[in-house]
Amino acid sequence: MDCAALPTLWRRLESSCAAAPPDRRLRPLVLPDPRHRTQIGHAIELTFPSRQDGRRLKRDLEQGGLADPNHPVAVMRWLGGRVDRYSPTFRETFTDFQIAWRSGARALTDHRFWSGWRMVVETWRPTDVPEAFRVVSDEWGKYQLIAMDGEPTTLSRVEAASPPGLRHLLTNGSPVLLREIDWGQWTWVGRGRSAGREAQAALIREKTHSASLLAQLDRAVVSEAPGWAFTTAVDLVAGTAVRDAVSDDDLIDVRFAGVPRIDGGRLSRPSFPIRLLTTGPVESVTLSGAVAEQLELQRSGPREWLITPTVPVEGHAQVSVKATCGDIVRSLSLRRSALAPVLGKELPDRFLIDEEASGFAPTRAEAVATRFEDHESAATACPQQGLLDLVEYLAARPWVMPLSGLLELVDTLPKADAAGKWSILRALLEAGVIEPLRVRGWRGGAAIARSARAVLVPQQDVCRLRLDGVINEVLASRVQGIADRLGLGVSIGPGVGDWSLPLLSVEGDREALLALAAEVGVTCEYISPDLAGHVRPRDAVPNADGSTHGARQLVRMADTRLADRGIQLSLCRREAEDAPPVWLVQASEGEPRYWTHRHLALLDACGLAGVAPFDIRDGLLTANVPGVFLPLPVARWLRLATGVPPGPFDGGYAYKTTPCVEAMIREFMGMDRPDSSRFQRPRPAGRGRGPGMAFASGSSVEVLPIWRWARVNRGASR
């Protein structure tokens, strides 16, 4: 085979790469010496290391002795006594790297030797595997150990199955440095100086630290790890004092973190800054390119910068890192929305969708006779940018997330403090964006992004298709394009407040709407005509078992009417901390009633106390008792029926109603009766002692203890 033209083609490619504009994102091609291979020499020499050298490197790495594969001094010291075993090309490339290093150059991360070395190290599986276990936090501020398969584990099991490096730390009681791999999840950083710099938390053995040091650490107990604690005060832990120090021996490099990677780039939304981490003696970092004006760069630490988009950005930016010993340039690809989110994956058996087993599950019908009113909203509420950014984040990172991590993510949104992270979380749940999960063996809950679906809602004159789930910008634009082609109208309905997610609706003929749903690729359902398939709060049966939850804490309720009527609310935990807590509703007399969620327990408490949990005024359903929400399936149905998403409103939480829906809600919640106590579950009357007698007096009801009734009517029958 004649390959005489290959050298000419290589030289043309070298010239083309050198002449390419910066926006092409092409690295320069430096052709190596072809040596004696005049035709295929360039191809062979560009492959570094060669296959034989790569196999030899892996064998030497398996034998050990390398302290830190990411530190150039350690690598050169380790490889210096072995370099004679390798090919001449390898030796020359290694020698060239050593000469450049000793001359003071530190911008060598793109050097041929270092690029090839990192490629071999990444494919080599070292004995110290960082992902040996995980530490997961829950929404109650507790921590527990999780095995790599997601099942709960103990520290003794982790130590028995851990690699030698981690086992040595656990045996000696040394701090185990952790890095956050996702919101609310940490894992071991591994060994080496560069790994220690990534530490964001640590597991510490308390008896190996002085009382004065422990007093400075913000410690948290870790279940199934007796004697150990979790702390984020990493700078005070032994062995991390110089982790932020800038060393002249480190190569200059850049790494991006903090946001999900999607479609070959990083998610670029104003609410989520991109972390830029550097190594080596970096002096300054600058941004350039077409989208640089839409990015704000701010230094946040000795080795960290934050890149914050002022608006959602799509494009490329050049990151220039300047230092006295060399400069490097990196390209940062930015994506404002995920093109094709991977949602709807099958959950492992240990995950269970929450609130479906609470007795409030709806029924679905294939045809709806009810014609819901078309709500003509004059609302001008503009959704918070942070809420829209969060939807894009969930679309880019669609897998299971601990509920504590999701709450932490919500808490970072701008202006989230005013509405409260729990109310915002509830708005996301009721908007169908996320699905609540319970995890077998976990104390805390979890959540997962919910795939999009379409719901047909018949109205007076037309039919509407309302989209539920994670609807990001890409999917919304697809719906708009298909609707325009089919001649359908598209509208975006605002919510009750600026922390309510807008609802995307399509109006038109029923068959055309079904065709649109099929083309978009979402399942289509019909809205239930009423709430007949839901269990009314007054008929709901407690959905939890708290008989083994011995640790009980009385919760002070904001509404004093409940306590005045002998109703107590307690948070119950198991001493073993191996199950989620439950909520106990206890009347002065009666059996204990356990619930999985606080808002369900409050609904039950309102029923026992004869207190109306909600009120309807000016078309808004608002809570009379702080912390009360509609059952999740009912709230989702109400959002689709009215076309107005619920959410935080005027210091509380509100749902929109229409005349047709309001009648259904009043009947469902028992609000159509003159007095709320008449339709609640019977409870002991009069001081909570003995039975009582109820008498109607006009529009009210008078309840007398049986002893008082007997005294008043003594001798009346004679």
Number of helices: 21
Question: Which overall shape is indicated by the principal axes computed on the Cα atoms?
Answer: globular
* Span between termini: 126 Å
Level of helix content? 25-40%
Mean pLDDT: 81
Query: What's the total count of β strands?
Result: 35
Structural class: alpha+beta
Biggest beta sheet attributes: 7 strands, mixed, barrel
Low-confidence residue ranges? 357-369, 376-380, 674-689
Strand content: 15-25%
Number of domains: 6
C-alpha-based Rg, rounded: 32 Å
**Strand arrangement in the largest pleated sheet:** 1-2-6-7-5-3-4
Organism: Brevundimonas subvibrioides (strain ATCC 15264 / DSM 4735 / LMG 14903 / NBRC 16000 / CB 81)
Protein name: Phage tail protein
Keywords for this entry:
globular, 28% helix, seven-stranded mixed beta barrel, 718 residues, alpha+beta, 21 helices
Description:
- With 718 residues, the protein is α+β, with helices and mostly antiparallel strands.
- The chain has six domains: 1-45, no CATH class; 47-124, no CATH class; 134-239, no CATH class; 254-335, Immunoglobulin-like, CATH 2.60.40.10; 351-534, no CATH class; 551-611, no CATH class.
- Helix content is 28%, strand content 24%.
- It is built from 21 helices and 35 strands.
- The strands form eight sheets. Strands 1-2-6-7-5-3-4 form a seven-stranded mixed beta barrel. A five-stranded mixed β-sheet has the order 9-10-16-15-12. A five-stranded mixed β-sheet has the order 23-24-22-21-25, with helices on one face.
- Helix 7 (155-161) crosses helix 8, helix 12 (403-411) packs across helix 14 (421-430) and helix 15 packs across helix 16 (510-520).
- It is globular, with a radius of gyration of 32 Å.
